[in-house]
Structure formats: C-alpha cells, structure tokens
Amino acid sequence: MKKIISIALLLISFCSYSQRCRIKYIENDEFTKTTNIVMRREAISIKYEMLRSRMIKSDSLYVLMLNYSRDIGCASSESYIILKLENGELLEFKHMSSVDCSESATFTTALNEHIDLLRKHDVIKIRYCLSNKYVDIPLTKDNYFIHQIKCLDNASN
Questions:
Q1: pTM of this prediction?
Q2: 3-state SS, residue 32
Q3: How many other β-carbons are positioned within 10 Å of the β-carbon of residue 51?
Q4: For residue range 72-100, what is the model confidence (pLDDT) as tens digits?
Q5: What is the distance, to the nearest Å, from the Cα of residue 77 to the centroid of all Cα atoms in its chain?
Q6: Distance (Å, rounded) from C-alpha 30 to C-alpha 122?
Q7: DSSP helix/strand/coil, 157
Q8: What end-to-end distance do the CA atoms of the chain give, in Å?
Q9: Rounded to whole angstroms, how far apart are CA atoms 31 and 100?
C-alpha cells in the first residue's frame, strides 16, 4: 500500500512539475522600452531525435526558436515549419532571422498570426524543413504550446 501511495505521489508531483512555468528571465530594456520574457529551452520531442524549443515574448510579439539535434541544413528565408494541430489544422511559419548554417541551426519565427489557435489547440506534430530536407517530428509534451503561451501571458500581466 505504501508503494502505491508513493508512486501516486511521485506521478502527481511529476505532472505538476511539468506544468510549471519555466521562465529563464524577464528583462525590461531601458533603451527600447520593451519587456522581454524568455522561457527556458526544453526538449519537446525525444522520440526519434531531439527537438528543443524556446519561446519568447517581446511586448506583444511571440517568438518560437527551434533546434533539431541532427544537421539537416541551414535555416534561411526558404526554411519553414508546419504545425499540425489536434483538430487537423495545419499552420505554416517561415524562418524570420538571419541565415544559420551551424550544425544545429536555429529556426526562428513569429507566432502572432496564429496565436489564438495555438492558445486553444494542442500541437501534435511539427514538420521541420531546413535547406537540405525535412523531418516530421511528433511532440512528446502534451499541450506544450498552450502552456508556454499561457505562461508568457501571465508573466507579462
């Protein structure tokens, strides 16, 4: 009986830990007068290769940064991701930063165009397309985008 209770408490604490907001820092830029809220980088898929994500909110701009653990080319203006939502909708986002040809290139995009959908619907898979090829990556964290956006919104209030 003690083992069952211990396991149940461990599972409950793990679930509550995974839903906490993991903010790295909040910065008020005295020159631009913007408030930047930066979340900690997290692995959001570890089933095949690792996909790491970081979300940032700079005033009203929501930014997503992704790194894939394998080299599949450069992140450039031709790069894109497609997010598949639980309701079947597909949302496409283009890379918006400078060219990055490092081994684990960083893909950066703004989420504002579809932020209301991302607040309501879980992302279940990401098509990650850089210069050499694309990979379809199932997310292993339920409600990741919903939770991160909520954390960014709460931190800015």
A1: 0.82
A2: coil
A3: 24
A4: 999 999 999 999 999 999 999 999 999 99
A5: 20
A6: 36
A7: coil
A8: 44
A9: 27
